[in-house]
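Reviewer 2 asked us to include a model.

Predict the structure of this chain.
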Amino acid sequence: MINRRTHLRIETLDRRVMLAGDVQIEIVEDQLQILGDSLDNRFAIEQVSRRVADGIRVTPDESTSINGSKPGLPVIITGSYQNAFARLGGGNDEFKWNAARHRTSTVQIETGEGDDSVILENLRSSDQLQFSNISGEDDLSLSECRFDRGIQAIADGGALDVTMQNIHALDAFIKIDDIKGELLRSSVGISDSNFEGSVRIDSESG
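Predicted model (structure tokens):
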């Protein structure tokens, strides 16, 4: 009788699980609120129709979910809003908003750590755009927008590339304060735009 031993080899498969970023978006008391998490978020917002009450359509890419839904699934959020507030959180985020000339009041956008891209198109504001970043190299692109009380963009500790095309605003104040001393590059480009007051650009390296 012959005894044969069979040796089984167990292989461990390297499974890479890609975590999807999630963005919480809702309309609360006349304010559009956009809150990102610490992961990379890529999404676009556009008006559903000319009727403000029809709300907005949010289209994420396959790496991002909206309000906990399936990643990549578009979501429609109904309701009217006047003010808009976005805190994108950490990660390398891409946020595009085509407002279809919907008139808003104050628009506030805060980016977090990471390299972020923010694109605003066809936005009409009776107040001011307030943009700020704390780290990373951010891009802010404005096209076909109007801000009756001006534009304020402040980079506290990171780089900021600003592009404005066909913009009408009271004035613009752009401050780039590289307090971390990283000597990151920043730039400002303005074309075919009208400012009733001044355009002021301040830069400082720590």
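Residues 10-17 have pLDDT under 50 and may be disordered. The two ends are 83 Å apart (CA to CA). We have added this to the supplementary material.
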